[in-house]
Amino acid sequence: MTSDYKENDYAWIKELMNYPQTLEQHLSFFKDTSNISVPKDPIEQVIFQDKAKGAIRKIAQNKGHILMVGRPGTGKSMLANMFNEVIDKSLGDYLRPKQSIVAYPGKDKNKIRITYENSEKIDDRVIEIINKIVSAEESMDDFSLSDQIDATGKVKKCLLWATGISVVGGFFFAPAFIVTGLSGIGAIFMYMQESNYKVQEKIQKEASPTGNKNGFKHLYDMVPEILYDPRKDNELMARISEPDSRNMKGGFRHDPYQSGNLHTPAHKRAYLGAHAKSPIIYIDELKTLIKVGYMSDLLEIMQNKKFILEGGKNTGSGSADRSESHLKADNIILACCNHDTLEFLQKEGDGAFLSRIEDKGEIIHLESAVSETSQNIKQVVQYVKQEILNLGEEFKDAWEEVIEKEGYEGVRKRSEHIFGKSLPDDYKLKEREFSRDAVLEIIKELRCRASDKKLSSILRPINGIIKTAEFEAILDNAQLVLPEHVRRALDEHLSLEGALSKEMVKHKKDLKKYIGAMTDSIGYVVGLAVNYSKSSGKMFGQPLPIHCQINAGGSDTVVAPGKIGDIAKAAAQNVRASIKKVLQKIGAPYVGYEMHVEYIQAHSGVEGDSASVAMDIAIVSDYIKQPVNQKIGITGSLTGDIILAVGGVTEKIRSIMDPVLGMEGACIPWQNKHDIEPLLINTEYEYIQNDEIPGIRIYRIQKKKDPFDIYFCKTKYNAYKILMGLGKEEVENRMTMRSKEDLEFIQRMKGTLPN
Predict the structure, then answer these.
(1) Strand 705-713 and strand 111-118: pairing?
(2) Distance from first CA to last CA of the chain, Å, rounded?
(3) Torsion angle (degrees, nearest 10) of CA 192, 196, 197, 200
(4) What is the pLDDT of residue 287?
(5) Least confident of 325-329, 348-352, 397-401, 693-697
């Protein structure tokens, strides 16, 4: 019998087992992170993205544009910040604007003029204008009618005296009463005139503050407005998370008065956006720019390097306002997006934005995973050290005042209130260095989150794991962060998908026990599935119980009820074709079969073909009535007889390695053998072999206790041997017998069975 394995294959598996020793050799340059130094070059503080870092250096040299494409957490924002820092140190003095941007009244109330002025000169000019207006305001005399009032009062008094004298004289000389009447009328008239003057003076005095204000408001409205002062706003890069016309170009604020003499002139309501003020514009997420429809404006400004300031709304105050002159906009554009946005940009306007970027810059793709080279492994150590230093700075910011006043004893007492328990007397809130084995756990996690012997570049979720491991070490009062601290941190740091997956594994544990107790395990198999976290990029494996039945019928059909995806349905069809091919190959008669495939309680649906080999085993098990070992899981993509590689193998295996689940091993595709490497870190293991099929036994508990066997299968017959204990020849013989029995059954039913 020809073997599927060659001598080199067994040597490769044994070589695979050398991975932990090889990794430790790469890390032999340190025992813990205390002696690890962090590069002073800010760009080199971003790890893994060597291609992106090289491109950024070139683009910084010629002030080009950059579009960074990659998944969240790969370092796009960090690279942008480092680019800003490098530009600031190298060309910042020459890139920063030197002149103030000043707005003046235009040719009508809706127009303004914009000029670039020397900052100190425009300050002096504005102060001089304001001082002259204030001086004119203060030199104005108060309104008064006192001269008219005094003169009228004097005449009134004279007439009153004349009236009194004429009354006395009238008793002696009657015609004197005529003088009395005339002087009395005159006195009354003078009284009325005096009162009129007093009323006029009072009205004018009461109105004079407002009158003066209105009189001088027009002069104040003519004072130039400084829209941008480089001495006050000297940031080189503007960070725009939601780009639109208002924060990119600027505009005109709403006028709350709008009518009468109180309206605010347009140049007083103008404000500037990033284009006019910032040499570098960092657009954190390009998708928002597309949603608000600002892309066409951005393309025009990138082309012309200038723009007109205008009102941003079609109606309301400011809609008709605009500048008579252009504003300069020679910006370096740094933009970030994910792959779905990149696909849109390729179609939108025939890729006009991408063309602008490539014309004077570069589109940089940030890797979501990098090869596990010696250099990249060293960068992981550097990355851990950087996070340790960052945590130290956070401790200092949060507790510096307490430490200065009360010492670390005060920190301990106050921390007891936070944690709700007593802490050791020598407890000290200070960052701990990572031991080499703890760093190995971080590398292990990065390997598990990727595939093909790569390290995941999605580092943002790892930051939290490192910090949590630090707190675990601090609470244990350990001198160093140890592997168990990292493992505890990993258990705590689950995304939403991870928490759901963990709950699902608990459910599947009880489900598997129940199925095992209620069935003979014929037609049942434990497949392995994986969920992807959109937030962290992490994969979460889980067992996937599958039940299959095959019944002789009049036609070939595959029934797969429930939420099953198109790829999974195609995999089921492929399994049917594979069985038909086997029957033809061994010369067995073929009868039409109805095949039922059920993913047991897979409520959220199943997609992908990684369960196709599991379906094949379940169907063959039901076909030849051979029980399947329910303590061994399996994953792989079946093509003919060959099992091909699938994704997420490391996480699938990790999901069933919990001893509580009761699983004892797994079968994985031969091509996925390197995905086992991270599982060997900080564990005990040994080489095993079942018949011709090589494998590795990993001990889940120290001192070689609780083994878990992983077998590397090339064909489905290798999987038959592990899961059903049958070789190829015996399986085919039993399939032949079953097909003959089914043929006889069909013929008997139709009454065509030969004598």
Answers:
(1) unpaired
(2) 38
(3) 170
(4) 74
(5) 348-352
CA-CA distance, 645 to 120, in Å (whole number)? 69
The answer to whether 304 and 284 are in contact (CB under 8 A) is no
The pLDDT, as a whole number, for residue 497 is 46
Residue type, 389: L
| φ, ψ for residue 552, nearest 5 deg | -65, 135
Task: Please determine, looking at this structure, whether the domain spanning 81-96+234-366 carries the CATH number 3.90.550.10.
Answer: no
Taking the C-alpha atoms of residue 321 and residue 311, their distance in angstroms, rounded to an integer, is: 5
| Fold of domain 31-42+370-492 | Helicase, Ruva Protein; domain 3 (1.10.8)
**What is the spatial distance between Cα 579 and Cα 189, in angstroms, rounded to a whole number?**
127
Spelled out in words, what is the top-level CATH class assigned to the domain 498-746? alpha beta
Q: How far apart are CA 25 and CA 39, in angstroms?
A: 23
User: Does an H or E element contain 529, and which?
Assistant: strand 524-532
| Residue 622 half-sphere exposure toward CB, CA atoms < 13 A | 22
Distance (Å, rounded) from C-alpha 509 to C-alpha 108?
78
Query: What are 3's two structure tokens?
Result: 């073997």
Q: pLDDT category, 496, cuts 50, 70, 90?
A: very low
- CB neighbour burial string for 140-167, b if at least 16 within 10 angstroms, e if fewer: eeeeebeebbeebeeebeebbebbeebe
Whether the CB-CB separation of 543 and 531 falls below 8 Å is answered with no
Q: What is the pLDDT of residues 604-650, one digit of tens each?
A: 555 567 788 888 899 889 889 999 998 999 999 888 889 999 888 99
